[in-house]
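Researcher: Please generate the 3D structure of the following complex. Treat every line as part of one assembly.
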Amino acid sequence: MNTKLKVSEISKIYPGCVANDKVSLEFGSGKIYALLGENGAGKSTLVKILSGVVKPDEGQVFLNNESIKLNSPLDAKKNNIGMVFQHFNLFETLSVFENLSIDSDKKNEDLRVLVNDILKKYNFKIELDIPVLNLSAGQKQKVEIIRCLIRNPKVLIMDEPTSVLTEQETDDLFISLKQFSKDGILIIYITHKLKEVLSLCDEVAVMRKGKVVSVSNTIDEKIESLANKMVGENINTIKKKINNFKNSKEILKISNLNFKSDDPYETNLNNLNLSLKKGECLGIAGISGNGQNELFQILSGEIITEGTSIMFRNKEIGKLNPRERREYLMAFSPEDRISQAAVPELKIYENVALNNFKSSNFFEKGLVNEKKIKEHSKKILSNFSVNTDNVELKSQFLSGGNLQKLIIGRELITSPELLVCFNPTWGLDVGAINYIHETLIQINEQGKSSILISTDNDELLKLSDRICVIYKGKLSKIMNADTVTAEKLGILMGGGSID
Amino acid sequence: MEVQLIKIEKRNDVSRSIYFLTPVLAIFLTLFGGGIIFYILGFNPIEALKFFFITPISDLYGLSELLVKATPLCLIAIGLSFCFKSNNWNIGAEGQLIFGGIVGGGVALLFYNHDGFYVLPIIILSGAIGGILFAMIPAILKTYFNTNEILVSLMLVYVAKLLLDYLVVGPWSNPEGFNFPETRQFSESARMPILFGGLRIHAGIFITLITVFLTWLILYKTYLGFQIKVSGLSLKTAKYAGYKGKTMIIIVFMISGACAGLAGVGEITGPIGQLHRNISPDYGFTAIIVAFLGRLNPVGIIFASLIVALTYLGAETAQIFLQVPKYTGQVFQGMILFFLLGSDYLLFFKIKFLGLKKNEL
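Model: Done. Output below.
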């Protein structure tokens, strides 16, 4: 079976932004294609057009030289185009088989035979009659893939499939994808992870600002060359100089901290111990949902513990709430920047006032000192190069990168001794990521400490002095960053052990 | 079979002016809906609506009555705005009003034989305290036992009503009252001063106006107001900023309880002058409509309270001139809320028709 997919002169214009600008690409079966680009480069729009979710303003899609109309996801299915989205569309409480049978028109008995064949052929180990909620992320993804395979797809599109997977699960996925490709399925792989492109794909198309800027064989590319094409400028990869903190003062110490939650969806933390020195960056790796949220809240004071369990600059702070901890010069940048670190409906200066110190005098004698808050906000906007100087702007109109700069700026302008941040660059484009990374390195150079909880291993390896992994609410041994590799982290994140 | 596919999407930016215009739209829709109801009942809709909304306020007495009704509505709604703005759903203002009335009335009865300028302030203060105490029950249960304040505050309304019933029939009933379920008339110094001879409008209106001003000051100019705003928009953010959530729940319930209690004491020392079974025609519930119609904004609530007060008066004139039950007033109040919620839904969400689809089932 030979499949040719061609998109020709596809354009899609949203109000205020050209998402796809005359995009033309050709794909043929037997190869794995990477579609690479920053957030907002237009790759998601293109994929949505191919899966029938979005209709293009101009242009055509050809499958085996025939023009096809993709007006709905159903049309995509009819044309044997399968799609696995980044976020799973599964009913958690239904069984695996029920999830598969929902959108299939086959008889249940036939479907079961077919599914079992697929499981055997690709060596997938999934029980069909257990509820989906008992599956790991990798297994859920396999269910989504099987759902596509049932329909004998000619084209399989994967949208950032590895963001929720461990390193081992990622390896498994790549093996499967290569097998699909051998069986004649055309695979389009959307990502912004450069390493994956090089290790998995045969050809790579790079998109920037709605346009295809390059199509090439991956053999001819290197990480640096792809990164340059993606960003469009020569970015200097910053790498932190790892320091030796033997003689530095200890600033934070957590000893034997336990947290047991009443909420079954939260993770309990067991016997946490860690210490942090002045000027040091401690990275905490892990797959999301292993207790990072709870750990962040314990550090920030949203969850209160015993006073003695957390010592910060020789003071017991376990019982203090976030505002009180800020008085002791701690600062926090939570993962959810859109609805927790800031309120979208509030103006910039009001969001700045959320971080309130006694000495900042935002609220004198209980009254709002608007003038002072606005002056302070202006300073943050210019010092942290946020792309506006209008403090009256509602923060919902800031892009993700600018909002994060505002939040980090708000937290740092008061020169805290410790910054705790949780996935600070999640969902940002490369420019903003670099800015945030430089800022985080800078504060360490100024002798301030930081704790970086992140699910992005490259980020952790780049910024941390020491790294540990959180798995099911437990911290691994804390390791020096120069001895840690991505592979080691992957093993620990998946619950394995290393010597 | 073909079915129309519908998708409901959140709108991103809702313009501020339209946000404050939708209540006006809701009022016009209510008038329109009311007209239809009157037409079905066999009246000329224009005439009937005139009896309902124009006749009651076409003289000085009518205007004074409008203010008499708007005074407690506005006061309670202002108090509720603190709760609603911070995501605390106090539905039991009626109970807090009655309990404030009971405590204030009890004190007024204690001072039955006393004259002096100090009597009224003590009664007013005790009414406010009564309201606060009654509002503390759902607040404390919510903060310490995680109960649902909607249920607790609502159910407590009936507790307060039955307690009032018991008191006016039993221990507090007027010894010379021929067993009518009412207390003695309060003494002259326990009554709100009347502002104009011959009209019922009383000094309670100043309490309301001062409260409105203080509310504006607190909500928009103080740290407490800022915290209430943030908590109302995102509890997660409030927690992250380190605001004391429990203390805030207690404070907003205290404020709204105090306002409801003041409204209760204003009624019994103002137009009523004693305690009996029906000291409030559901002001505490209607004030919820007032609060939302006024967009939880102090100035908006003033206007909303006048409009809703008019439905009370209109119902009375309609009863006299059109022989329809006075509960038409509640029908109008219900319609206002219905149309407000309806237009709000369309304001915040848009409905997309995705076209006809073959139903494959």
